[in-house]
Fold these 4 entries.
Entry 1:
Amino acid sequence: MKAFTYLRPGDGAEAVALLREHGPDARVIAGGQSLLLALKDRSARPPVLVSLRGVPELAGVRVEGDELVVGATTTYAQLTRAELPGWQATIAAVAGDLADRPVRTMGTIGGGLCAADPRYDVLTLVTGVGARLEVLSSAGRRVLTPAEFFAPGGGTRLEPGDVLTAIRFPGTAAWDGVVFEKFRTRVFDAALASVLCAVRLDPDGALAALQLTVGAAVPVPVVAVQTGSALVGTSAAAVDVDAVARDVVTEVLPGRGDTPALQYARELVSALTRRALVRALAHPRS
Amino acid sequence: MTQAPPRPTSTAPVKLVGQSVPRKEDLALLTGTARFIDDVKLPGMLYAKILRSPVAHARVRSIDTSRARQMPGVVDVLCGADLVGRVKPWGDLMQDLLVGDHTPFAVDKVLYEGQELAAVVAETKYQALDALEAIEIDLEELPALVDPEAAMAPGAGLIQEGITYEFGDGNIFDRYRVRIGDADAAAEEADVVVRQRFTTNRQAGAALDPHGCVADYDTFTRELTIWSSTQSIYMVRDVLADVLQIPRNKVRVRIPEVGAGFGSKAQIFPYEVIASIFSMRLGRPVHLVLGRKEIFQSGTARNGQVRYAELMCRRDGTITGYRDYVVHNCGAFSVWGNQVLHIGTNVGMLPYAIPNIRIDGDIVHTNTAPGGALRGFGIPQTIWAKEQLVDMAAAELGMDPLELRAKNVIRPETFPFTTPMGQIIDSTSMYDCLHTSAEAIGWAEKKAHPVPYEGVGLAVSMKYTSCRHPSFDTDLSAVRLRLETDGTVTIYSSDVTHGQSHATMLAQIVADGLGVGFEKITLAAPDSVTSPFGLGTYASRGAAVLGTACRLATERLRERVLTIAAHVLEANVEDLDIGNDRVYIKGLPDSGLYLEILASFAAYRTHQLPPGFEPTLEVVATYDTPTEREGADGSGNLSVTYSAAAHSAHVRVDPETGYVRVVDYAMAHDTGVVINPLVVEGQHQGGFLMGLGMVLGEDYLYDADGHLTNASFATYLAPTATDMPELTKIYEIPAPSLTIPGGQKGAGESGTGPVPAAVGNAVFDATGVRFTELPITPQKMLLALREKERQGAVTFRFPDDMPDFTGPRTKAEWPEPDLTDAVDFDWDDLPGFDDEDDEDDVDGGPAL
Ligand SMILES: Cc1cc2nc3c(=O)[nH]c(=O)nc-3n(C[C@H](O)[C@H](O)[C@H](O)COP(=O)(O)OP(=O)(O)OC[C@H]3O[C@@H](n4cnc5c(N)ncnc54)[C@H](O)[C@@H]3O)c2cc1C
């Protein structure tokens, strides 16, 4: 670790002002669960850290109109305890089944998204359910889609001085069911592959929307748009799960397996897609 | 007249050996008050950090430390060139080399990634780290030799350049041979011969407590004190004194709490030399504790092997022969590496009495992390190959693997029983262990009703209890015991306890022998100034070897105590007994003289002593095991006694992800007389966990340039608590050792040896995939299943039957061992050898 100056703004505006004042090398620190590791091995050497811990407006869960607004510094542990209705319960479930207890206690959903390691579950989550990300900078506030927030090759498109303030999840009516599946070698490891399946049904039981999103095995989560849209109108009972899994793999990880790791990633994506679909279609409205 | 209340009836003192006495060690560990190496803080202490090579193989063009010297807080800087001619290389003793090959820093050449290049000492660790970044290194990178067989190939570059080995030039630094009976003839005559090439992985010790030391040189007394997180204080002391060329009584090794080692701390390391030199130059204490990445890179890892193994059987299942050609990867340096092949293979032949054995081993250097001792010391590698061959033979013979093993495991009518390999089995319950373990897993049931993707597997092994290392001829431990004048007892031992519960186990022995309360007995921290000479804690030797020394010391002390008591009480020694903290007339345990009174006579009232009795109650006992040296044919009884282990695994394979879960596991062991069942069970659980890591996840992943790509706990897949099955099936079937006076056998490593093979056999049972390499990762498992389906095969070998496998698939393609004999060595043949230079500087101290 190198020496740094630790600043504690009281609100978002002050945080942004401090970042602007200290220039591009200053970094935001939230729970520190990713950043501290980088500081310790000196792969990150920010002279100034702007802590978001004492900024009340950035933490907590609230409903605004249709949307569920989760403050960026809401910890995984807090999310786990939030009693969320309908499909949104999956948000709490995802937060409760990642990393280990100390990391969940300190780590924040915003930190996970800004660290933008594709193996982190919340990237797949926000992409898969179509959340929007609210960013504050000295130029003002903007709201981004995941595709705008994440860079296509990995990482985020945030500029120095940007602070992610909140994640705006769609309302309970957006989906009837959301299922998240992942595979990791050890319980506390980040995922090797993850798949999120979000479904909305017509009153007659046909698929009104199906969004299958693949994470971890790709630099940034990818929605299998073609596969999903091709199934719209199909009755849930008629979905050929194996065929869908094959289509997702072809769409998201095209080509033949050249490296064993890539071959394996395809196998995992296929397996996780099947699992997510089966669960999502079995009880779409629970 | 009122009647006096009846006296309570006398109770005979309770014996503690055999009971699960809670550990003395736990309080400090559980309350976080134990002081580990990083907690050692001395007045005026400086902090040192090491600059390590970023590449695996290179010539050193230059190392410029001038800028680092100018950095804030920096007190001193050293690199290899600074020490040439000032320190003696080491590593000769254990490796059987004429000259040591270890130096504190790389001088001309870097041999592995992470090798020491330079070091800085500064007022704070952060200043030391800053200064490391200011050191300019110029390295000319050379092609790295990562694969041991590639390192042996003709034309491969030379790794260690300055050393002439017995077998001539090249990267083979030692050879190993076993010639028992006639294995070639046995192969001709056998009804069934099974053969397979097996490889094994590199596994880290991964002790949570880091490697490190604090060196403190007193410029006035010229005594160097070094606190070190080591398993062996005298190995550190004697080698360090030799390296620095100072007298051994001027080096004092002290021990903080040591948070495990698993073999990875059973030798001296460059950082101990570097910290010592800094402290000697500066006259100030120097703290040098390694980070996790450094430990992965340089803290010694399990030796990897390639084994071309063959097992021969008669139609009735009798095992008649074993033949093997082993390529043994020791990394760039290895203090213990060649011994791992010798001992691990010799003892790895058990628990079968195989009449014909032929083994050739090439022990090679590669540009990878130093190899060394690790829990099991070569046994898990040998068993991985041999116990899978046993299952393959069972399949060929159409026999149940349990039946085949039952037919072959050692089960003599009388003990001691000598095997063709020369091991003297003084007792064993191997046969019962095998059946107990198999029954516990539900072997017959599961075999009769197979479930898709589930399987069961067996493996058996025997672990040596301590060892007479072929490279040096000793296997001893010692205990000094003092009855203090308040009736407490102090135990002095140099064998470092670091998870083995010596404080508890030795106190149980002393409590029983001396009749002293368990709580009154203390184990002093190992310190080379006060502790008797002993080899250290490794090789499952604590209970049997150190425990025996302790028993002998206890008997001697008891005899002296009784002699004083007999004199004072005017009784015969034969009429006296000892217990409840006193000496009493037999049958009257509530009467008698307290030990503290007798001890104070021995120290403060010597006129009370019998005439001619030498005062004080302090004794020393040393126990050297009655073991043999290794014979020229590889035979010999290297170990005093052998612990049996029979393991059964029940696994479930997820055909969609390749994840292998060990759902149930049964272990039956013979640890002889168990001193403390709680401790022994803990050892078996820990041993199993290390075996599980070896078979399912752990490995040093190198790229083609010799970079270790997973040198962190985030990426190195050591198993955690959640990967463990519920270990409810741990059985002890004691066959007390007939050689060790208390009957105990080693416990520390029995839990590891059979695990990889048992799980490998279970995976085959579940999937038809025979893994010939380690570890069995989910990725490999799944790709093997897919390729097996694609080929429509019933059985399949991974990686041998994968399309991209480039190694030899059949015996016809196997390499032949080179049978040339060692070169006869003659000093006169060495160019430039001049014995005029051979002067010893003993008391002057080096000019560092
Ligand atoms: C042992 C371990 C296991 C883990 N396992 C998992 C797992 O299974 N699944 C999973 O999803 N994750 C896992 N993680 C990662 C974990 O989710 C992240 O470490 C955590 O989310 C980071 O959040 P934080 O608040 O600690 O961020 P920090 O470490 O404080 O910050 C991370 C990065 O984001 C930036 N940043 C943080 N907040 C903001 C903000 N509001 N605006 C702008 N920039 C910001 C920081 O500058 C930094 O670059 C694991 C981590 C560890 C250590």
Entry 2:
Amino acid sequence: MSQKRKRSDAKSPVNSLTDHERILYNLIRSKQDMGIWSRDMKQETNLPDTIVNKSLKSLQTKNLIKEVVNIHSKGRKHFMAAEFEPSKELSGGAWYADGKLDMDFIKIVRKQCVKHIVRLKVATFEGISDALKRSGIFKEDLTKQQIEEILRAMVLDKEIMELKSNGSGVFNNIPVGKVCYKCVKEGGSVSEPRIGAFASIPCGVCPQISLCTPDGIISPKTCVYYTKWLEF
Amino acid sequence: MRNKVVIKTQISLVTQYGIEYAVHVITDHFGNLISKVCECLLRRGPLTRSNLKRYTELSDSQIKNCLLVLIQHNCVQAFAVEQTGGFGEAPRFVTQYLALFNNIVHRMRFSKFMKIVSQEFDGECLDLLEGLFEHGRLTLKQMFDRAKSAEKEGKPVTLDYVQEILLKLVTARYVERCPAPEPVLAPKDEAPAKKRGPKEIEEPKTIEQEVLEAAVPVDGIRFSVLDPDVDGEKKDIKPSSMTAREKRKYDALESDEFGTTATVVYRANFEEFVRCLRYKACIDNVRARLDDGAATVLSAMLDATRNEETEVRAKRSASLSLSSIYEEVIKTEAGRNMTLEHLRASLTELGTPPLVKVSDDSYSIEFEKIIELAQLEEMESIVLKRYGQDAYRIFRLLSREGRLMETEKIADVTFVEKKETPKILYKLWKDDYLHMEKLVLAAARQTQFMLWKVQKQNLWKHILDEMFHATLNLRQRLAYELDQEKELLKLPADKRTGALNNRNIRLNKIRKILQSSQMKLDDSIMLFYDF
Ligand code: SF4
């Protein structure tokens, strides 16, 4: 047993760990890609603060563990064994960088999608995915899931819309019934959604509407939103 | 136990501000006294005259006169309820009065209704209809007198001619015979209702629905014109398609309230106008969502199925074959150059989400779905304006999914920062847009999840109430602006020069914007309330 360990990990720093360090290291490793918060370690191991802090530092310098960002609580010290990558729950997923949504990246991907959809008039998922790949803009190809996620968000923003092919006209060569995407506005500019009648008048967006009465302090007669609206 | 008719006064979508608005309309059109009676009925539900007297503290004759005006203008309907007498006494009938919220609110829509008719009929029809709007109810004789008084030289008005116009409008269902003045509501059996299959469970009828069902004559009578050449004989101009059951009810009606032509009274049929506006809203919505082709197809389908529709708020239309749709499409100007292939393409377009549903090679319009999407669009724009783009995306996700979703998942799909997402969700929840559920899992470390979904029914009702509130506000602001400038308005037009002229121009602009906003808002109210 001891021989075996020696052979495999002869030079591994694991062998030079103190008892406390070993306990903590095993705990952290057991959490795999979820890692663990330092406060929870103290609770689970019942070790005093000073020892935990000292041991964690030592484990870090030995490159056995690393500190990672937990997007849910950025202030907390969260640790993970060096060989794991933070899970999606911790990092926020593919669209997150350093615990924040990578807005610049997302914007670029969306822009590229719109560009291809505009060019193709109506595009299938595969069409968009191929075009993105061929463009060579991204260092790594986006996953199928990533493209799906982006398209879905764009549908929610009413930037593009989903529709089914009817096999003719612009849908020529696309099998009938296949889901396609099309830009809502010609040219792919982000369209302001159609604003309904209620949302187009001051009362429709007024935070005070529940307090507004004909003869009250807040009233349509004295309403400043109205005065501004009716300024000509 | 004395009164066996179960009276439910709740009309589900009539909200606080809805009532306030209706009262405002009545005050505006008929003054304070009448509106007092009407408000009492709107707030308390159907009442007898003695109860009305008690609550309003008006005199008998005042109440009687107010009710007569309200009935004349179709804002109140009387009905009788049978009450079992005490021991040894015969049952007796008690008359109650019911305010008709819908009809009151329709009073603000006369110009919209006129516009519909003006697209189909000429000036004489419009004049007759205008008379009905103005007076509520008219007999043929009264219509004739009215036309006579406006007679132009060289164009004598005859009774026959007026009747012909009336028949046109009745055939098109824009005008109908008035309902029975005081239908009797049969007492309900208190025995438990018959067991029904789960599919048949219907919402219990409101008192308004029950009364109107009892009062409105069957279609054969409702849309018929009685020939005035009486000579002791009654000659009806009525559709020959009346069923035996309808005939019986017809004859029964003829023998009492509708005995002679002199007492046959007509009024505008609001239901038909609402139906037309509902169709129009559907077509407009499809045009905006898809394209002109799809709108042309939808409108042709509506033309073809219109006569088969019995309810105003039908969930879907009758079904049509591809060839019958095509036949209808090429009748229209916009559809004349449509090929069959083009039609098929448009129908596929209309198929997702199913605005037109196909089964067994026949197509039917899913009104409910179209209306639902239109309502949703209005809601979404409110969320966008009030809470911003991220909330808009979240709301759209949740309303499309229509089920509970977990915070994390929502953040992922909508690309909203994970730390921001709960804040937005919480805000929407606090303002009653969302419903929230906590899910506690004992086993895992992260034990608590928050689940969210759109609180549709309550939210829709709440927004409708706010829309009524906003309509009132628009009207009040306009009244205020006019009042501010009343001195100016008193001046003759040629005196309004210089600075006065500028004020006049400003006032006109304000009037225009407030009035047009009101009309558009009313379209949205109809979308949520009437369609
Ligand atoms: S009148 Fe003014 S204060 Fe009142 S609800 Fe409308 S916008 Fe708000």
Entry 3:
Amino acid sequence: MDKYRIYLTGVGGQGTLLATVVLAESAIYAGYNVVASEVHGMAQRGGVVESTVMIGDIKSSIISDGEADVLLGFEPLETYRAIRKCSAGSVVVSNTVPVIPYGVAIGKGSYPDVDKLLDFIGSKVKRLITIDAQVLAQQAGAVLSANMAMLGALAKSGALPVPKEAFEETIRTKTKASFVETNLRAFELGLASQ
Amino acid sequence: MHPLLTKETGKKFLLLGNEAIVRGALEAGVAFATTYPGTPASEIGDAFFRIARESDLYFEYSTNEKVALETAAGAAASGVRTICSMKHVGLNVAADPLMTLAYIGVRGGMVIVTADDPSMFSSQNEQDNRFYARLSSLPMLEPASCQEAKEMAREAFEISEALELPVILRTTTRLNHCRGIVTIGPLKPPENKGAFEKIPSRFVTVPATARVRHRVLLDQEEKARDMAVKSPFNTLTGEGPWGIAASGIAFNYVADAIKDLGIEDKVRVLKLGFTYPFPDVLAEEFIRSAEKILVVEELEPFLEENLKVTAHTNSLSTPISGKGPGLFSRLYEYNPGMVREVIARFFGVDYTRPESIDIKEDGQQVQLPIRPPNLCAGCPHRATYLAVKTALKETQTEAIFPTDIGCYTLGILPPLECADFLICMGSSVTSAAGISKATGKKVIAFIGDSTFFHSGITGLINAVHNKHNFILIILDNGTTAMTGHQPHPGVEVAPQEWDKPSISIEAVVRACGVENVAVVNPLNLAKTRKAVKEALGSIAFQSSYQRPFVPFMKGVFLAKKRNASLKSGLNATLIALNALIHLHALRFIKIRIPMAQQP
Ligand code: SF4
């Protein structure tokens, strides 16, 4: 396969956009052509944040339903919601820690059972990898680094042609200096998590 | 140094579409930049804002898009290279200067960036601003990639100066917010000292001048058409009996689809980047070489109609299709799979779409809670809305809520539900007048501080003068929160080295003739509720007067004596100060994501 379409989804504030840039830059570092896309604006007020990274000979920057090779879900409900982007051949990497929607928090509706959501996904796609990104990030020293733990799990999955060294180099050069150590630790923990 | 000021010519960087536009303008030596922030164009102004602090470029966040365009027009008439960026609906606000600026033209190159938002990710409509090019007779470029965005932004200045006309650079959200690899070219230092040559017969559009200038514009339009025909941004590639014409982001979906469907040897592609004036000669060549043609463009059939006119003019009967049942829609943005499918169907190519996973197959039938964007936890706007709702409940009053554009529009969501009418920036104040007059009901309108400066003031003056009767609540957080905390004329929390005077909203409101003004801190629910009740006329207006406690706007309550004989019908204006929470406004000076050099 010479083309890879990666769909990222999460909730505002989870650092999905930084993860998008780190993934894109890592792929470039590894010698690939890259286009990425993100939606700003209203989505940042605690809403769903979706972005994409295309690696290889692709010009389009967005992903149609059923066409994601990899789905990186930063929140289990959002992974589930975005599953239409996947097909039976997709690899899904999902965080297992829910972010409770505002509506649920004020008593409107309930949050579904995470295991059941993930079981369904697992039964439909080629491979499902789950990690508790917040716990790993906490171990690394800052819960904000959960996005880097997610990238660690993605790198480990082998679903993309981007070596871990490319991620490490990008984290070193592209994330905030004061966070580099924690980010790298979180990445390594994600890498070792499976 | 700002990363976009890099001197590493020839190096490749991963840039956001908006950053690529900024870099292209810098490579053209742009010296003067104006904007009013609006998604998806905001990052253009934000980058210029930071760059202006370390270069000779002048930049300003103008009060609205009309002001931004007219300010830029003055600089361009003085021979300085200018850029003015805005979101698509911003060009509606600036449409008045745009139409006549086209008549007088410019002397320094001028680029007007309009960022359309198909699918309305963060807008109130999805109008197709390519029609502004046709309406104004101005040349237009439409990039398909980040690299092209940079090239076009730079080239637009050359085209502009060659024609002495502003050039429209039209983008869509997917271009503004896509990231792609861009090769950096040499920077050109800004020449920011202009000279204004007095030529009233050109620059003062009295009817006699305008008649002459319209003719000049039409002549220039034909020159621009020649440029479009020869432009490297318009290309005819591939060989084969089928024709596909595409522009903007849709071109990428076409290029990928042709490969995915394996029809490289069957299709000729007309890729248009210089889309107005329509390059008719090139289009004619394309039409002649094709058996049938599919036009792929988001939103309106702009190219399609031009192609059909070209075919008709040349007595060509080649079938040309684009919008229609089974083909493309005029609604929403496209996606690669949809374009691939329509191409396959139109040309009769075998294709089965990939099977996507459907959660309806999940036997558990889980009800998914929605996750709409929401006001930040602890946002003082919530407190304001809550105070209004309680005051209404306690006084058993029903009210209608015209609202405006900003974070506070999210007050539409339950449990607040404080939004009943919204069409555009500033429409809260004006529609409130109409609704209250027509219904005789209590009307409470909400408007943000930046929106108030943008287009609330004239409506307020109108309301006072015409004795309209409603309550206006100005939600003042001292910044333009929703688009990324850009400063505005009333800025309370200024970035470092900010040396611009702040205009007091309260003073403006009073100067507009509003006599009952209460300034409250919404986090003080009791006082805010009381102020709303006073405004509703249920209790006498507070007569105590306290000076605001400035640094943190903590516990501000300021109410002037109720004037027994109300000169204006407008019963009151509340200004809810949210400065406390908006200390995070300081963050907008940060660079979003560091850009670094590629190997
Ligand atoms: S950014 Fe400010 S105004 Fe907007 S929702 Fe958050 S706290 Fe409220």
Entry 4:
Amino acid sequence: MTNFPVEKIRADFPILAETIRNKPLVYLDNAATCQKPQSVIDSLVHVYAHEYANVHRGVHTLSVRATDKYESTREKVRSFINAASDKEIIFVRGTTEAINLVAQSYGRTNIQAGDEILISAMEHHSNIVPWQMLCEQTGAVLKVIPMTTQGELIYEEFERLLTPKTKLLAVVHMSNALGTINPVKRMIDAAHALDVPVLIDGAQAIPHMSVDVQALDCDFYVFSGHKLYGPAGIGVLYGKQALLEAMPPYHGGGDMIKRVTFEKSEYAGLPNKFEAGTPSIADGIALGAAIDYLTAVGMDTIAAYEAELLAYATEQAKQIKGLKLIGEAAEKGAILSFVLDHIHPHDIGTMLDSLGIAIRAGHHCAMPVMDFYGVPATARASFAMYNTKQEIDFLMQGIQSLIEVFG
Amino acid sequence: MFEELRDLYQEVIFDHNRNPRNFRIIDPSDRKVDGFNPLCGDRLTLFLKMDGDVIVDASFQGSGCAISTASVSLMTEIIKGKTLTEAETLFKQFHEMTTGKEEHIDLEAMGKLAVLAGVREYPARVKCATLAWHTLDAALKNAAASVSTE
Ligand SMILES: Cc1ncc(COP(=O)(O)O)c(C=O)c1O
């Protein structure tokens, strides 16, 4: 392995010292949610102990302090994804809320009966259901880009499905069920050639690689703080300024207005227009701490280390008789989804848990992907920068042993 | 390596998982109900053949984890020959055994089903064991459609 300082990083994550059923925790469920470094935990504690007040609405010192801290995260996020302006960074609860916001605000304004919305066969439910709801409301039609059994989108089919009827492309950057990294740049360019705006679901991609929204030229990019080593309850909608400006508000309430009378309300400018109500103040500030942490380690360094972990895990997994990998795309992030002959993923999950190993067993909120592979569920080990080769060895030993026990 | 799991994965469970009993279709059947656990995606179909009030045959189709397969397999064995009322009582006892208060459980009375008592300690797996029984409950009430554990 490269000289990635994994032991030093592990020491920054207090939960990794936990024991589960008297065994050291081996946390391999990072695609569901990531653990938090001490600096993020400290940040939460510090806010509540020293900086907490409501934001954007007080003249008192504490409110100004909280507002400054909260707004400084917006700038950190902007810089982290290289957005052109911090007006383009909208704080939401998470990926799910961000997609719903775009579907309802952008979608209901711009999409009509007979229009088509294009998604892919490997979307998380949160990038399927909001569009189905929009289709029901508007009479638009949902189209789905198919994939191969390797778990790669069929690019020619994408080109065929992208037509003048297409009014929006919403596609996942990295699949949580398969690990596939989609060729989003190429897809965005193809969509733009037909003036089709593109939303990228970056929930999984964002903790694993550096993302530059201007280089991608995507119209919307969405992600959750909790998968980025930050707190749950805070997430980001990036949108191009011109698009966001033309969109109506999603929620109405305090903070998103300039002036309210009973006859009419005048909305605030960006980003406040989309941020009605008191936000997750401390979580937002702590997301800034998570970004500081990641920036210090370096996203490219993390990506290189995780690529080694994935290559090692894949090689080991292939040695196990009766193990079938689900998702073998050439471009893949650090996710290993698999099934075992005659052993249900739930049993795998419980057995590994008894060894202290946390994996996910289930449909990963991607039931259509399960249907495609004809399995009810898969077992999924998903890696983060604090995982080690030894942990992968331990996982593989656990899998070998449980295969023996099941006979 | 898996010593702590012995209460959950007893040999009887492995046996029923490897060789599920009554894994077949009854056609024509008198009652046929689908059970679904949306949490894990497991599905099963339960078939009952009745003679008046008595269950004369029971079988199932579908796939699930070892716990749910063993549970439905054992269930189809045990309810054969039982009246609807007796089966309903068993459903309640099974439910109590897997989710109820410790002191209300009479493991002796549960017979073979007692091997599933271990799920009590694994809240994430209780639904695997009870899916079969919820499906039976729906069949007993003659709910023709389908049942979900949620
Ligand atoms: C690809 C993908 N999209 C969307 C989501 C939804 O994220 P959240 O639950 O944080 O809103 C997830 C989370 O599992 C995901 O993996």
